[in-house]
C-alpha cells in the first residue's frame, strides 16, 4: 500500500501525534509506504510531497503544530480562479497512492471526498479541532489542551483582577460552540460563563458584577467568541476569502466590556486569548487520543473502509460515514449536564429573566 497523508484547515495540538501513529501503524502492520503532503491541498496542487518513515516521525509526539504544514484556503476546485482538480487527481495517480488520510475539519474532509468523486483516491478522515464541535464525535483531540490553556489563563487573570477589584473578561475560541468556554470556565472558577448557545442579558451579568463588587470581590467572566447579547449579532473580526467558512469571530469580550462599564462601579478589562489556545504541546490526554485516532485510521485503511471518519462514541473508538457529519456542527445542548451543574453551583450563564 502507498498512502498519502495531509493536514488541512486550522492546526491544533495533537496533529503530529496522529501523523506519527498513522505512519508507525501502517509501516509496522502492513509495510505500507507513507507519503506526507505539504501544506494540505496546496501540496497536491503545487506537487510538494515527501516520504514519511520511522525516523521522520520520531520525536514529534509532544510537538505542537503540524510537521506537514497546513492551509485553509487552497481548494483544488477553485485555485486562483481555476478548477485544478483534474491535475490534482492525475498527480495522486502519478504518486501511485492507494488512499489518502485527511486530518482536518469539515471543510478539508468534504474537499477530500469531492476529490474522490472526481476520480481521486479514496480517503479516510481523522477529525481535528480545538472547538470539539464535530458531529458524531464526542471528543476531538486538541480540545483538552485548549481547555488547559484557557483554565491557566483564567487563574492568572483572576489573581490580578482580585488585587484591583476589577471585572475581568476572558474570551475563548470555539467558533459557534461553547465547549471550550464551558469546560474551562468551570475548571477556572469563572463567576459568569457566556456561550453561543445562550444569548446573554447584559443587565443580568452587570447585576452579578455589582453584587460581587459590593462584597469586595472581583468578577471573572469567561465568554466564548461566538456568544452574543440578546437581540444582538455575532462579533466578526474578519473574513478570509477562499476559506470553507470565511467568517472569523473575535472581539465580543470588548463589546461586553463596553456594555458593562457604564453599568458597574468596578473597572472592567477584557483579554482575548486568540491563538495561544491552538499552539504548544498537547496534553497527555490529547497525545493518547490522537495516537488512538491515528492507529484507528490505519485500521480503516487496511480494512478498505473508505469514506469514513474516525470518532469517539460513548468513550470507544468508532467510525462514521463522512456524509453523516458533513456540514454539521455539534453545539452544547441546553440540557447538558455541565450546564445544569454550572447553574446549580451558582455560575451565571447570562440567561435573561
Ligand atoms: O476552528 C478552530 C479555530 O481556532 C476557532 O476556534 C477559531 O474561531 C478559528 O479556528 C480561527 O481561525 P484562524 O486561525 O483562521 O483565524
Automatic annotation (TrEMBL):
KW Cytoplasm (keyword) present: yes
Enzyme superclass (EC): transferase
Keyword Metal-binding in record: yes
Active-site residues (renumbered): 131 (proton acceptor)
Catalytic activity: beta-D-fructose 6-phosphate + ATP = beta-D-fructose 1,6-bisphosphate + ADP + H(+)
Binding site for ATP: 10, 105-108
HAMAP family: Phosphofructokinase_III
UniProt protein name: ATP-dependent 6-phosphofructokinase
Underlying gene: pfkA
Amino acid at each position: 500500500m502507498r498512502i498519502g497523508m495531509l493536514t488541512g484547515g486550522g492546526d491544533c495540538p495533537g496533529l503530529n501525534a496522529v501523523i506519527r501513529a498513522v505512519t508507525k501503524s501502517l509501516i509496522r502492520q502492513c509495510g505500507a509506504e507513507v507519503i506526507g503532503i505539504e501544506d494540505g491541498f496546496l501540496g497536491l496542487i503545487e506537487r510538494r510531497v515527501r516520504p514519511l518513515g520511522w525516523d521522520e516521525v520520531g520525536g514529534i509526539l509532544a510537538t505542537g503544530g503540524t510537521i506537514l504544514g497546513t492551509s485553509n484556503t487552497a481548494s483544488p476546485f477553485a485555485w486562483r480562479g481555476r478548477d485544478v482538480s483534474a491535475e490534482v487527481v492525475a498527480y495522486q495517480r502519478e504518486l501511485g497512492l492507494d488512499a489518502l488520510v485527511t486530518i482536518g475539519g469539515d471543510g478539508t474532509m468534504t474537499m477530500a471526498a469531492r476529490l474522490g468523486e472526481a476520480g481521486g483516491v479514496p480517503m479516510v478522515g481523522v477529525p481535528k479541532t480545538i472547538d470539539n464541535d464535530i458531529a458524531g464525535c464526542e471528543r476531538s483531540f486538541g480540545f483538552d489542551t485548549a481547555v488547559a490553556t484557557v483554565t491557566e489563563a483564567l487563574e492568572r487573570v483572576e489573581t490580578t483582577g482580585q488585587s484591583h477589584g476589577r471585572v475581568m473578561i476572558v474570551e475563548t475560541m470555539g467558533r459557534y460552540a461553547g465547549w471550550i468556554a464551558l469546560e474551562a470556565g468551570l475548571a477556572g472558577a469563572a463567576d459568569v460563563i457566556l456561550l453561543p448557545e445562550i444569548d446573554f442579558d447584559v443587565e443580568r451579568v452587570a447585576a452579578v458584577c455589582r453584587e460581587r463588587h459590593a462584597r469586595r470581590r472581583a468578577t471573572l467572566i469567561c465568554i466564548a467568541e461566538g456568544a452574543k447579547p440578546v437581540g444582538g449579532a455575532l462579533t466578526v473580526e474578519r473574513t478570509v476569502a477562499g476559506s470553507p467558512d470565511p467568517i472569523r469571530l473575535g472581539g465580543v469580550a470588548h463589546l461586553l466590556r463596553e456594555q458593562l462599564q457604564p453599568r458597574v462601579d468596578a473597572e472592567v478589562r477584557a483579554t482575548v486569548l486568540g491563538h495561544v489556545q491552538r499552539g504548544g504541546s498537547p496534553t497527555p490526554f490529547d497525545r493518547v487520543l490522537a495516537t488512538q485516532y491515528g492507529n484507528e485510521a490505519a485500521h480503516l485503511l487496511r480494512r478498505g473502509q473508505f469514506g469514513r471518519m474516525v470518532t469517539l462514541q460513548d468513550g470507544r473508538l468508532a467510525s462514521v460515514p463522512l456524509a453523516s457529519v458533513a456540514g454539521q456542527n455539534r453545539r452544547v445542548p441546553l440540557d447538558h449536564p455541565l450546564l445544569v451543574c454550572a447553574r446549580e453551583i451558582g455560575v451565571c450563564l447570562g440567561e435573561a429573566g
